[in-house]
Amino acid sequence: MSDKQFKHKLYVKKNNDVAFTASTLEKIQTIISHYPYGQQKSALIPILHIAQEELGGSLNVDIMDYVAGLLNITSIEVFEVATFYSQFYIDPVGKYVIEVCQTGPCAICGGEDMIQYLEEKLQIKVGETTADKLFSLKAVECLGACGSAPVMQVNTEFHEFLNLQKIDEIIAKLRSESELKKPEELTWKERLS
Amino acid sequence: MERKIILENIEIEGIRSLEVYRKTGGYKSIEKALKMTPDEVVNEVKTSGLRGRGGAGFPTGMKWGFIDKKSGNPRYLVCNADESEPGTFKDRYLLMNIPHRLIEGMICSAYALGSNKAYIYVRGEFKTIIGILNEAIKESYKAGLLGKNILESGYDLDLHVHTGAGAYICGEETALLESLEGKRGNPRLKPPFPAIKGLYDCPTVVNNVETLANIGWIVNNGGKEYAKIGIGRSTGTKLISACGNINNPGVYEIEMGLPVEEFIYSDKYCAGVKGGKELKAVIPGGSSVPILPKNLILRTAEGQPRLMSYESLSEGGFITGSMLGSGGFIVYDEDACIVRNTYNFSRFYHHESCGQCSPCREGTSWMESVLHRVENGEGKMKDIDLLVSIASKIEGNTICPLGDAASWPVAAAIRHFRSEFEFHVQHPEIVKNVKHGSLEKYMKAPAVTGE
Question: Which residues contact B6 (CB under 8 A, 6 or more apart)?
């Protein structure tokens, strides 16, 4: 299917320039080399992970087209993969994506209460992002850590054996972390102190 | 009956590193395997009676025997570490603590299959494990255990980690291969089976992490020794990941044939139901297998004690039995609401259905919405039979087993706990006010749940 015929509500091209850094491109070349010659498409999912991580937390059409160019495949091949897997976000997300497990074993150990509590605490519903673009709350299916239920992950970092107090601590920690400046943003005086 | 094969030496500090792992006898099997012919290794595995630990329980040696060696195409070995069955977390525990056990098993297996390229497909959520595995693989390359000319034998093997991105369906072997090729995880129609046409249309074997972790021991000690462990056709040990309302959730390695009663109540394992409550039901093999009420999980319909083995758990078929599956042992106490739990799993399967086959795509959605209305006190009596009918129409009518996996829990829950479903329909005023938890205390009529 050519790009001209393809129209979808999620498929909005903004023609922003996107590009990986040289070191990332090198990393990508290593990943591609793991697969046999001519099968570079296999590297698509690992590269989309990198793209999402380094280019703003979620994917958009510009990023997807850029990745398609890197792998020499069509745009639609990237789009169909990006919309199939639940770890790729097409909509913009906050800095911290909180994903709480809601499947059976977590649910009987209080997973649903955790979701409700987070909704009240962050003043958003599941699937929404806070106004300050700091937190996105998602309810996801089994994270594969049922023995330490209830479980949630914040940007792929697991938090296990949750309770309300623990959630308070995690949120407070993330809030304070986001206020800190990155080392390169600090002046030399601040660094010394 | 304590016996450790896979988790042996797991308590030793630093076992995650190659150095410590080798000191405790690790990677010995490779030296032995490389001196044998590939067919001899396959025969050892056949003799061992090892069965696939991912859920289906298919004999591993037989699966290896099917691989097409005539075509001349490169052969691939793929390890399935896309563990996403609710209730199962054994592979995560294994990889987190002792990743070299898998790499050792994979080198022996790849040699037996004549494969020079192997992949480990890890689910995308396990970021930590991907890091651990990459580190372990790097160490093995440095030590000459991977790469060109392994231990001067002339045999080459490249091993890489591939990440998924959060799709339960990619645990199905053909969907996994599609995903490994960089496509959507839509399962393929079989035949041709992966052993003939798998990854990149080449002969491929896909095995679970736990299955491959057993191979090192089998090569070291021989298939005959392995077959002595366990009971009947369920040979060896099995990792059981116990979770739910129990005192000691976690991963346990048991010898096949351990009585279920001992597993639940012994202090060595689950240590009984949490809070001293009464046991209500158990799902013995991950969310896909039928749920069993207390009386049927502890004893079979004939009154024999139920054992942890492929045969004993499936005794009585799906009428009074279940399956060992992937070993995800979910325990429910007396306060658990079976209807809510069934709705929860239906939502899971609806979310995870790839949408390729109509019975599964539409059926899982219908089951979810019907169960949602029963759970919220808006159901009608005929909804219960409707659910049974939908479930029976999905089962067996789809390309992959996800359709079956979605219909079995619903059918079994209604079979064993019908009165609870009926209560939800008859008493909407109570159901609407109780968000979760059992309605047992509201139900005057004794439940069918056993006793």
Answer: B94, B98, B101, B210, B213, B214, B217, B237, B239, B253
